[in-house]
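Fig. S4 source data, part A: sequence.
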Amino acid sequence: MNDPANLMQATLSRRSFLQSGFLTLGGLGLADLLRLRAEAASNSGSTPDTSVILIWLQGGPSHMETYDMKPEAPVEYRGEFNPIHTNVPGMDLCEYLPLHAKVADRFTLIRSISHGFANHAGGAGRFLSGRDPLRPLERTSQFPTIGPIVSRMRDHVNIGIPNYIGNQPNVYGGGSAYLGESALPFVVGSDPNAKNYRVPNITLDDKLKDRLDDRVTLLASFDNMRRDLDQNGSLQSIDKFNSRALDMLTSDKSRDAFDITQESEATRDKYGRHKWGQRALLARRLVEAGSSFVTMQMQNPGITGCAGNWDIHAVNGHLYDDLRGRLPVFDRAVSALIEDIYERGLDEKVMVIVSGEFGRTPRINPQKGTRSKVMQPGRDHWPGAMSVLVSGGGMQMGQVIGSTTANGAYAKDNKLDPNDLLSTVYRFLGIDQAHEFLDHSGRPMPILPSGKPIVELG
């Protein structure tokens, strides 16, 4: 047995902490998580040292104003913005994404993904779970989405960095369904750009720390967490896992990954001193420390004149005035993350995905704004075409995969399904998409019912 004083001084690396979990989430204790990881390693070998950052643009960004512009289309389709060249010949982007243009050789654009669900919850559920939603209007998916699946398959804590009112644990239309609440993300709320930013609940309560000298009581509290599930006496050696879990909870180093003040002022400035930039930086710190999956929601930019999310119908806002404010902030945060991933040598280990649940209608639909009370341009929901940015992952960058029709309405060449992207991600993470979970009725459900890795990504 280790002396309690040594337990308080013992520390683990940030990677071990993040891979093992922060605290009890939905009933799964730290010790159980460690034990499961050890059993998985002994039975099937180690998992790949790979991670994914999903930058989720809730509301559905306009592909026509970002990554798939149509300057030759009639004005009612092409809109007000102009394309600019990038450092990749033939890959033009919106003029409000000049920093993207400088790192285009470090990402690939997929322009030919589409699906059939035009409302937010249904579109997000379809895109993130790989299955048609049973009830498309429900806020929570009826099938497990990618973050909870990664959490289950790799025994990692799924981390969510929300940017929306309430710090809800899911994207709109996301969820863990029959995987249970323990697969939901650990939510990292608040604004990391704030001076008093801190992440709660990653250390023991002070009162519990004061009781560390009572080792019998402490270990008993850990042992009782899930002892009722031990049918076969498989927890005989759980004490060592309890000790490691205790080390994590009492170590100040466990908080390092969340402490972006450890970054240089120049790095923080590069990402942008705003919520989106600092949350992108936080996402990089988390995957660098070993987290398998981080969802960063880019909503509520906090810019005067901009809507809360990317759902820019004309009734919600003036499409072009909104994007003139929103896109420069988006441009800085995403391009800095991509550049940072490569400069730190993480491009083989980390895959970045930038997407929303669908695109926007190819034809502009002017309406009277709810607030402005005047006619203004906007685009509506459109799952027939969308653009997705992929960076890193040791994959083939600096290319455009697929295309859309001349007016941007539908996928034309190399038509792809969201499942093809999900299949690519699961392969990168070393997850068998044919693995089955039991749903609420006891029916075996594979992770993906269809989909193949995208060949062009390599």
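Fig. S4 source data, part B ends here. DSSP finds 14 helices and 16 strands in the chain.
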